[in-house]
Amino acid sequence: MRERLARAGWLAAMCTGMVLAGCAPRQRPAGPAKPRVALVMKSLANEFFKTMEDGARAHQQAGAGKYELICNGIKDEQDVQRQIAIVEQMIAQQVSAIVIAPADSKALVPVCRRAMDANIVVVNIDNKFDDAVLAEKKVKISFVGPNNRKGARLAGDCLAKKLKPGDEVAIVEGRPNAYNGIQRKLGFEDAMTAGGMKIVSAQSGYWETEPARKVVGGIVTQHPQLKAVLCANDSMALGAVSALKSAGRLGKVLVVGYDNISAVQQLMKDGRVLCTVDQHADQIAVYGIEYALEVLAGKSPPAHRETPVDLITVEQLP
Predict the structure, then answer these.
(1) What stretch of H or E contains 113?
(2) Which residues pair with 43 in a beta bridge?
(3) Domain definitions of the chain by residue range
(4) pLDDT tens digits for 259-302?
(5) Half-sphere exposure in the Cβ direction for 265 (13 Å, CA)
(6) pTM score
(7) What is the fold of 36-145+282-306?
């Protein structure tokens, strides 16, 4: 009898210990966790990427929280190492997917390869990864974004209608290793060659307003017959306008931008910028996020997905 009582006490103690240790009887497991999607952008000081973030947050909220969204951006578009560090943080946090607009089309490939090795879905948006580096690293990363060469050609053709063959023009490029900057330069060149214009200078403004202001200031000094400046994004178009104003050439030299940010829209209304290109910043990240969610759900979307680009002139503005 004493043995049975002792055994019952021992069992009770064991059960109590199991409960205290978190070993309570099994309950029905909870449903699957929500996917965690990290949106990694370039400079949030650029209105384009702030609009991108706002569009992504609106999409997440409209979806009744079917996924969690983490938004990250770098201080400026040249801070490539910081963007690499952000991706490494997302790998450490074991997010489900990374949707990235890389600051550098080459330098971000290795860390994104590491993310994919960690079973994280990676989707490339806005600025396409370099095909040669992808091949070297033996990785395929889907690109969801615009045809930048086509978009730049639209703006260049619009400008060509205002010029005549032989007119001198300059191009302000984006970051040298940025695929979208390279493609926009090619699109501008396509239009200028077709129109018979003379490209007298092509220099990088590194996507930023102040570097572009300095570049354009030098160009207008060296080329007094300059008729137009084609800028690979609107932030640099702002710098071009500032430089032309300081040189007393505003209104005499046409300016073309790319991105359709609100500050350039106002300059278009004032007659200081001829046109820009809308690649729908508020939707680019959404397209990438939706693609990532499709992959996570086991669907098989196409390898790449092209998003729209539209020419914007003052006639299209509200």
Answers:
(1) helix 109-117
(2) 74
(3) 36-145+282-306, 148-278
(4) 999 999 999 999 999 999 999 999 999 999 999 999 999 987 77
(5) 12
(6) 0.86
(7) Rossmann fold (3.40.50)
